[in-house]
Design a protein that fits this description.
- The protein is α+β, with helices and mostly antiparallel strands and about 375 residues long.
- The protein has 9 helices and 17 strands.
- The strands form 4 sheets. Strands 7, 8, 9, 10, 11, 14, 15, 16 and 17 form a 9-stranded mixed beta sheet that branches.
- A hairpin with a 6-residue loop joins strand 16 and strand 17.
- Helix 2 packs across helix 3.
Length: about 375
Amino acid sequence: MNEEENDVQDEQEDGELYEHIRVVVDPGQSLLRIDKFLINHTKNATRSKVQQSIENGNVLVNDKPIKSNYKVKPNDVITVVFAHPPRVLELIPENIPIDIVYEDDDLVIVNKQAGIVVHPGYGNYTGTLVNALVYHFQNLPEQIANSKAKEKSTSTNEPNQRPGLVHRLDKNTTGIMVIAKSEIAMVKLAKDFFDRNMDRKYVALVWGDFQEDEGTVIGNVGRHLKDRKKMDVFPPDSEFGKHAVTHYKVLERFGYVTLIECKLETGRTHQIRAHMQHIGHSLFNDDTYGGDRVLKGTTFAKYKQFVENCFTLLPRHALHAKSLGFTHPVTGKYVHFDSDLPEDMMAVIAKWRGYATSNSLEE
């Protein structure tokens, strides 16, 4: 949310106002201050910028300027307006290599590499998977948003169209993704994700050992109330976040870290990363959720050096989308795609396996 110096009356005299963000408040929304509400519903917003925008008259409720102590009510229409038009992003095709696992007339399965953002957005306008997709594939279907989604906030820093995308992975998460190549595939795959009819399994290396061999984490996942760059876990009955369920089971124990498989029942942003931190098992080298430091183990220098060497081998969080199974949108047959762990994760797992079995480091 941008800060503006002119108030809304001055802008109306100077020229047209442009709608940047529009939010229709849910019918079940409880009374909540407008600044808190906008922080919870707007990406990359800070409290100071939201309050400044309100003071400048750039935040309207039901087409009228309000004060920062205004409390939103069910069905309020909130808009953020400025004198300049929203930034229009041109989706530029880029010749970026894609690891294609499978392809037919309706879909393509890719094995996403680490370090690549899935779609253009704030701070990442080029070099994304979508830029690569529009280069390698012609006439990809546009993302179809339902009417409720269209009523929610629209960020000026993100394009509305994400050709071929029905789901996404974090920048530093590797693994299997399905891309729609036809309109029918786009519609049916998007519905399958929404209806949770996808079999998605991830492999993660996390800090700590588990008392049990398997378990389930249930907790709403939503934007962190103080740090907008990360997600947080809230009670299932909380007004914050969305319902999220992660099933996990232990694959291999290394003492201070554990290799686990996660099966998603829902697909929230950073779900596995936030859920694992919530239960005290942050992903190994996850700099957003506290896994990029020694969380378990000894205080000896050799052990710390061992962990640092592992961080160097795996300069990202240890999470891989291992497999994806679903009903083919056209043939109606069940298809399943699997992928090998990337070399950086395999190298670190091998080091921990060697440490756990030989216990060669002095402690």
